[in-house]
Amino acid sequence: MKNLSSELLRFTTAGSVDDGKSTLIGRLLYDSKSIFEDQYEAVKSASERRGEEGVNLALLTDGLRAEREQGITIDVAYRYFATPKRKFIIADTPGHTQYTRNMVTGASTANVALVLVDARQGVVEQTRRHAIIASLLQIPHLVVCINKMDLVDYSQEKYEEIRAEFEQFASKLDVHDITFIPISALNGDNVVDRSQNTGWYEGATLLYYLEHVHIGSDHNFIYARFPVQYVIRPYNDEFHDYRGYAGRVAGGVLKKGDKVMLLPSGFSSTIEKIDTADGEIEEAFPPLAVTILLKDDLDLSRGDMIVRENNHPTVSQDIELMICWFHERPMQLHGKYEIRHTTQSVRCIVQDIQYKMDVNTLHRNQEDKMLKMNDIARISIRTTKPLFVDAYRKNRTTGSVILIDEGTNETVAAGMVI
Length: 418
What we know:
Helices cover about 15% and strands about 35% of the residues. The protein is an alpha+beta fold.
């Protein structure tokens, strides 16, 4: 059994503007003793300068000066903290409608999505939008934090009403694990410590949930996938026979002695050895970075993939994607882009824009073929050489791509293989 203390949990926060995301993260950092005294003092004096009562913990996460002055969070801010149980990376994403792309960026690698709901407002359009994106990105665990409970007198009735409304909406989505927690980020109720004000609530506090939620099965351990990133051929006479294939395991478990198939050649071989920076290991699983040595001297290069003989990905040049468009310049139908998938980089052409999705209602618009920034759509592409893909719902690594504008080298879209 893996030691929990070495486990890293990535979570993203989302909600409407002023739902208290930054305050919640500040509260988590402060109450779990993950900030330094000088940081706290700096925030305290900044709060006093702004004439605020008490200490505004939101300032702990609003790193950019402009954000602080406007009092809003505008980009994805990553924060790291640890408790004796786990290490955490938080992606704090903006609440505004026009920053859908930032949420997609922050949420793409998350194990857990925290969706904040203001107890006074209930489920609003932005709540639905963020829940839809979380389901689209197949984030395994969703936590609905019903915040500002202090402003509704810690009403159980209000909590139950919001919970019922969210559950009814979420029944249309592909979300399997939803947890509801009544909190007050400002006062710390049920964030790190249990609240005396919600005697009717019998669930876990937020930090307890984050420390104990089971994420071991979030990776795909069935389909063995190993995209080759780099071929290691030392120039040292002592190791002149060494030929290793370095990369990160994207799925499945690979063991010494396993029979494997190499793509795109279709040749078979056996794993002779698995090396890591800390020495040889018997088996490799996601997301370990390892070097694999094979028994046979076969020609493999960057972008090739090691898989099982009886279980391989789809090898295709025609691929269907759900994409989120990131750029101010609209997507061009029949436009040419560079596509990056695992360790491969090839060119592609957009053959069809099948529909745009309304992220608030799930409505599919098949008439409008103009993709603007933050739009989410289903498209068909054709690549210049085959990619080795899985459906995103089966494997978030081999099922995701990014599109790049060849002229400017800017990332213009993120996509999920259907």
